[in-house]
Design a protein that fits this description.
mainly alpha
């Protein structure tokens, strides 16, 4: 009688094949999701560029400047775009934006960039446990930036700490050239998005109509990709993927922050990095405590590319452009140093995120009110009222 082959060999092979299949599927869905995020930002840029330029003119009041930074970033779905525009305005040869006006705008951009991952969390609204985990991880980024602004904006207005420190650093960095970095992922996304844009331009003529259609298409891409992504990740909660992610991000806080920095520099968007954490948390692969340091690293990572690029600016106000970019770095570093090391303070954003998630789970409408009201309605109302009564 011919002996049968060991039974564990086919099991190992099928397990490896299943793991590879899930990995490829997740990567493909993530790519579609990122395409949707990129299209969404491009659509809002088409829709809101003139509006942003008008809002940037209303910045003498620091609170209104903060609101402008929030609203501008929520419209274009990218703090990198907003801060790049701010750097350009500060470094302009004629009628430059004063740095004092720009600093609250940069802080507002940090708050506005968190709207993407909060919107992503709404994809889990149908399942209470998943929604609680996803919404907690999404909003811990919000609350950290709220607390950072609440501490550092009054401190900056009273002492000029960020501007003075950035000025000292600019003096010591004189003569350093800029570095241009092209993200391979962004190039791949561009290749995938360009045909969609061409199709939209072929169907509609007006820029406003094209923007609306692009936003709708991107919304469908994001929702479909997230729906499928959540299903695949849910099936992987007891696989090697869970073990790898949990061990990697729970091993060291500094390692988790470094992961956030590196991934954000590679994709050139903190919104993408933090938004990717949300479905992982929803699927149970990532805890709130493990995700929190990654979001802080993403905050730092989003400043790196813009900082290196601004070191290459020229003209009479070139140093001012570098200075405001350094303010962005110092703001994020200072927020981490002031909030994260002390456990009672570090727990505040996490407690607030869990509390809000609990409210949102009990009544889903509060999640929508939170997103639309805080990131869009409130900033827009303040800016419009200020301009009306100015």
């Amino acid at each position: 009688m011919v002996p049968l082959p060991p039974q564990n060999q086919p099991t190992r092979f099928s397990g490896l094949a299943n793991f590879l299949q899930k990995t490829v599927t997740i990567l493909g869905l993530l790519f579609v999701f990122l395409m949707g995020i990129q299209c969404l930002g491009d659509g809002f840029k088409l829709l809101g560029q003139d509006l942003l330029n008008a809002f940037f003119a209303t910045t003498e009041n620091p609170f209104i400047a903060l609101m402008v930074g929030i609203l501008a970033t929520t419209l274009v779905q990218s703090s990198s775009v907003t801060t790049a525009m701010i750097v350009g305005l500060v470094a302009a040869s004629e009628n430059p934006l004063p740095i004092a006006n720009a600093i609250p705008m940069v802080m507002g951009a940090n708050i506005g960039t968190t709207v993407t991952n909060t919107l992503v969390a709404l994809a889990h609204v149908a399942r209470k446990d998943e929604f609680f985990r996803a919404f907690s991880v999404a909003t811990c980024h919000d609350f950290f930036n709220f607390f950072a602004v609440a501490i550092l904006l009054p401190l900056e207005l009273a002492t000029g700490y960020l501007r003075l420190t950035a000025g000292v650093l600019v003096s010591s960095l004189g003569g350093i050239g800029g570095i241009q970095y092209q993200s391979p992922l962004k190039n791949a996304l561009k290749m995938g998005i360009d045909p969609i844009k061409q199709l939209v331009r072929g169907l509609l003529q007006g820029q406003g109509s094209q923007a609306v259609l692009l936003i709708l298409v991107s919304g469908v891409m994001i929702v479909c990709a997230l729906f499928l992504l959540v299903r695949v990740m849910r099936s992987a909660t007891e696989s090697r993927v869970e073990v790898f992610i949990t061990r990697s991000l729970s091993r060291s806080v500094l390692l988790s922050m470094l992961v956030g920095v590196i991934v954000t520099v590679m994709v050139q968007s903190s919104s993408i990095t933090t938004a990717l954490l949300v479905p992982l948390a929803g699927a149970g692969l990532l805890t709130l405590e493990s995700a929190f340091p990654v979001t802080l690293g993403a905050n730092l990572g989003t400043t790196v590319t813009a900082l290196l690029a601004t070191l290459a600016v020229s003209g009479p106000n070139a140093e001012a452009g570098v200075e405001i970019a350094l303010v962005h770095v110092l703001f994020n570093l200072s927020g981490i140093v002031l909030i994260y090391p002390l456990k009672p303070i570090r727990r505040l954003p996490l407690m607030a995120a869990r509390k809000l998630a609990g409210v949102a789970v009990r009544s889903r409408k509060w999640a929508l009110i939170y997103v639309l009201g805080l990131f869009y309605g409130l900033p827009a109302a303040f800016v419009i009222l200020h301009r009306l009564f100015e």
